[in-house]
Amino acid sequence: MQRISLKEIKPGMVLARPVLGATDGRILLPANFKLTPFYIEKISHYKCCEIYIQDSETVEKGKGFNEPILAKTRVKAYTVLHETFEQIQLEEEMAPDKIHEVVNEIVANILDNSHTLYNMFSLEMHDDYTFSHSVNVCVISTLIGSAMGYNQNELELIATGALLHDIGKVRINPEILNKPAKLTASEYAEMQNHPLYGAELIQKTESMGFLTASLALQHHEREDGSGYPYGLKSTGIHPFSKIVTVADVFDAMTAERVYKKASPPHIALKELRSHADQKYSRRVVECLMKVVVPFPIGTDIAL
């Protein structure tokens, strides 16, 4: 399997993974689809930065990389998040049944492939960072939780909180969220309110539970008390929140934004490990290192 840019696509190439729409997450072309000039021209109009094609090793030896979750599950999660944000903006109650359904699918996908690792390049990114980031954090948190030995019910609780951890950003001015420059003191103070907003929004839906709200509230707290909104220290932070925290930081570090370049996974892992015990749970960081590919497929390594 090989990761290439749109400019490198040639007729006759076969997709190793589905191509997803950048704006709505729908499947544009399925895996194993043979590209023709017509379809190459079509996908060039979409905002996909790169695609994955089969190479001789993939075809002859079958060495494809297993996705942590199915493409249709990722699309469903993306859609549910879109709908949830819209419901909040319209001052409607969230639809907990849909959220629980997609969370259960994510957990089931991961438990069905217990040896699957997280490969950051295997997950398609969308234009809206908040949605793609939330799904990524959900997947990573579930993988960490599984490595830590939590059962299916516990993993579903972790995954629900992880999927909704940034829901409070719906109340943050988009100009602040998408600002390409450094935030002012007042803007940063407002950004720090999103965990509070998120917990408040989740608590309005009774069936979501107190724990889900706690995970949204605490995902920016740190072991040494240097986090926000309350400056809680290790003993005051729920163990599930510590998982979401590490997953959140890892995905944020490895994502490219308008104001920063993406860090390679091995650099992000090194940074997290250097702050284990001080800012992050050492056990959680160690489990992250077990489930993440430090050098994703397509990475050039100097020997």
Relevant terms:
303 residues, mainly alpha, Molybdopterin biosynthesis moea protein, domain 2, Hypothetical protein af1432, two-stranded antiparallel sheet, 13 helices, 48% helix
Overview in brief:
The protein is mainly alpha-helical.
Helices, strands, pairings?
Blueprint: E1 2-5, E2 19-20, E3 27-29, H1 37-43, E4 50-53, H2 56-61, H3 71-89, H4 96-112, H5 129-147, H6 152-163, H7 174-177, H8 185-191, H9 194-203, H10 210-218, H11 239-253, H12 265-274, H13 282-291
Antiparallel strand pairs: 1-4, 2-3
Structure description:
The protein is 48% helix and 4% strand. The protein is mainly alpha-helical. The radius of gyration is 19 Å and the shape is globular. Residues 58-64 and 121-127 have low confidence and may be disordered.
Contiguous low-pLDDT stretches (5 residues minimum) are 58-64, 121-127
Widest sheet, order of strands: 1-4
Binned strand content: under 5%
The 3D shape can be described as globular
Mean pLDDT: 85
CATH H level, superfamily name of the largest domain: Hypothetical protein af1432
CATH level 1 name of the largest domain: Mainly Alpha
Fill in the CATH topology of the largest domain: Hypothetical protein af1432
Q: Mind summarizing the main beta sheet?
A: 2 strands, antiparallel
N-end to C-end Cα span: 21 Å
Radius of gyration based on Cα positions: 19 Å
Helix fraction? 40-55%
Taken in chain order, the helices and strands follow as: EEEHEHHHHHHHHHHHH
Structural class of the helix and strand makeup? mainly alpha
Strands, count: 4
What is the CATH architecture term of the largest domain? Orthogonal Bundle
What is the overall number of helices?
13
